[in-house]
Amino acid sequence: MVEYESRAQTERERAMTELRREFAAVQLKLWQLENLLLVTVLVVLLVGAVLFVAVVRGESGSQRSPTQRIGGGRAGTFGAAGEPADTASTARETGGRRMPQRPRNPAGFVRKHPDTAAQRWQGIVKYWDVTEERWRQRAKTFGKQAEAQAWVDAAVMEHRAQTYRAPSDETVAAFLDRWVSRLDPGLRESTRTRYAQNVAHPRRVFGPRRLRDLTAADLAALYAGLGADGLSPRTIRHVHTVFRRALADAVAWGTLPTNPGDRVRAPRVPRAPRTVPTEEQEGELLAAAAGHRLFALWSFIALTGCRKGEALALEWRDIDWQAKRVTIRRSLAGEGKRRRFEVPKPGRPHQVDLSDELLERLQEHRQRVLDELGDQRELPPLVFPTLHQGGWQSPSYIQRAFKEIVSAAGLPSTTRIHDLRHAMEPAGWLQGWRWPWSQNVWVTRPPT
Description:
Helices cover 50% and strands 9% of the residues. The chain has 448 residues and is mainly alpha-helical. Strands 1-2-3 form a three-stranded antiparallel sheet, with helices on one face. A hairpin with an 8-residue loop joins strand 1 and strand 2. Helix 5 (172-181) runs antiparallel to helix 6 (189-206).
């Protein structure tokens, strides 16, 4: 029995010794593996740091001399002429010609904000300003480290793509003046004038302010103030449309990051019913105008659908009496000394057929103009000239004379000269006419 217990004790000790030996071997392998892993991590970090420094300074360092590379990327050494040593040496080596340098690469990092007790993070991006030829820095604070890192990554990519534009200190007045001067040269002069008139309101209110300081609330206050000054909702809406377009161009030019006009609702314009005279009312209007000096003008607008400016710019050479057709070549626009001829809508000359009745009225008007001139028998070029000088008709006189005829005909006082061409539209559609505002080709078929 004693011998059996002694043998069992010996076996247990041998098993424990073997177990300790295996455990020690496992510990040794784990320690070796841990050391290998630690060395691997250190090597990876070292290689990453070397690659980061190479990416940040590699391109700019390749253009510098060995002396300046030792001095660092920002300070460097300078030659005798006050320029960087690498530039001076390169100029000497190339016979006085400067070799172009590639742009410096931007770099960024994230750190805890040094000026706040709260846990906030600051993203910093350093980039090379090509205009001022020096390093500049951007910084922005965030509540989370991930947000700051995302901003840094986006900003670095923005500088690499060379799409970043530094905030501009340009005032609203200076920008609007520049914007008006850069309008499309193909625009009609009257359109350019209206654009300048519309942006004159924000220029007057925001003139000395920096453009990048404008907010949507400022624009809403501007529109409210214009309404209090008595401007109609339609006018305010036109101001909003043109000013918003100008701000959109500022974004496209890199002067503004965003367009505050996109976040402002344009004033609502109540729709007023359009007063279009019926055929009977148009007949009464022409009957009331019979005998008036401008009777042929009202008849021409009513029976051809031409615009007032197109009719006032009409010349006798534009009328083909044999073909019974008139060519609309231009339109009269502007007021006072700014009156001018422009290309008619839709952007090119077009022809209109004339009825026998309208041709007869134009012949009578021609004779009447000659009678008014008296001994001066030379016919002025314009079909509807002034009484004695043969020049352009005054818009105020045209409007006043039309209102008198409207009142004599008993039509609503809201009737406009432009409504005469709209009065012919339904009748023209019933008779199969084709109109310029609906198709590119304008060939009317007057009633017989």
